[in-house]
């Protein structure tokens, strides 16, 4: 187990990703963690992340001194290097040359960190982002590489196994960065990369059994990857003590509700309550055109319906949820100011307190791609595991303005044609999310010899790592032309197709 102390860098999660890709379990905790918490974790190695503060400022973050006395290897990155030096008796000063972005380091000496990767005399590309720099080394350290703005770009104390770098090895802009991190884990810390999804599955099953005992568990399925993987894993642990509830809002895509029912009931034989609540949802959404209003109505109805079904099942003590690691990392924020609500996401979460359910969250330690790997390990079909994310409010936020059954039907058909074309072109897995939006606009067209006056639709496809930022997907024009023709030919009610080339920011992924 590796512990990552977070000093608030934007890319701390990437350090965790690199460690886990090496097959080693790790967790991120705030830099302010006290000695007991760090000891209790029993880390085999510690990594100190970067961060936005300056060690030269009074009151800037420091690691608890227990980090230096546990006898385990420590790797400092950027701010982590500076605080390591400062805390161990070295000196850090504001730099004359600030380095942001691509920089080069010159390798001056051998070091376990780049054994088999870099050699003495080499000039290697790294990614820097710092203003301050180390100007005096603590006792026991030597310089192994330098850069223009950072004479102490890589430093090492081999006796204590303390290593530190001024750049960011966890980002892809440092081409051999992951190899450096692996060397720290394998060569310096002597760890084995044996944390696999098969091992996680076995451990998770044991933990769920221990937590739940003989109690009943209910789980809301959304049709998405997270809740599906959580349900299958819990079912493996406790069998028929688990009942799944699938609330069909009538806002799903073509065939989606049927797929969920078939997979869970027929394939996995998991007890499933399928509630067709589409009349209720569409009825309450009638005449509503404000996006936040739609989200609120859908969120409220979902909870009401779920709650009602849970009461019918009766006696459940636990609620299973597909919460992921990025939702539970205690983030370190130095900005302080209030953040603006762009959209009230995750609105299908909180159940009423009176239900008094305890939570089972077996995916709390996993990143999204690890959940996918676990899904494959559990035998979920590829089509399910590799699915693009789908928002809780479903197609309601892909029909800007007022929703009607007619509009939803048209959108479903267009979306199905679009996704079919993407799959056939072999592009589905390259794209984070792709979907059609039915615009609340009718336009004039000509088909055959007649005039048409039908809806316009927009196609959207983006690449993204986490949904926080996104780029539009650069389809070939010939592909776009082909999809547009198919949609207009195959979908009655649409006579014009546009492609959305907005990135996020300034746009958002969904239109509402
Ligand atoms: P935006 O549109 O904010 O979307 O760029 C980022 C990601 O979140 C999804 N999304 C939602 N998910 N409830 C959800 O559960 C919502 O209300 C919601 N709105 C957007 C969106 O599909 C994308 O993956």
Automatic annotation (TrEMBL):
Catalytic activity from the UniProt record: XMP + L-glutamine + ATP + H2O = GMP + L-glutamate + AMP + diphosphate + 2 H(+)
Gene Ontology MF, one: GMP synthase activity
InterPro entries on file: Class_I_gatase-like (IPR029062), GATASE (IPR017926), GMP_synth_C (IPR001674), GMP_synth_GATase (IPR004739), GMP_synthase (IPR022955), GMPS_ATP_PPase_dom (IPR025777), NAD/GMP_synthase (IPR022310), Rossmann-like_a/b/a_fold (IPR014729)
Keyword terms: ATP-binding, Glutamine amidotransferase, GMP biosynthesis, Ligase, Nucleotide-binding, Purine biosynthesis
Pfam family, one: NAD_synthase
Enzyme Commission number: 6.3.5.2
Entry's Gene Ontology cellular component terms: cytosol
Listed pathway(s): Purine metabolism; GMP biosynthesis; GMP from XMP (L-Gln route): step 1/1
Active-site residues per Swiss-Prot or TrEMBL entry: 78 (nucleophile), 168, 170
Domain GMPS ATP-PPase stretches: 195-387
Binding site for ATP: 222-228
HAMAP family in the cross-refs: GMP_synthase
Subunit comment: Homodimer.
Role description: Catalyzes the synthesis of GMP from XMP.
Protein name: GMP synthase [glutamine-hydrolyzing]
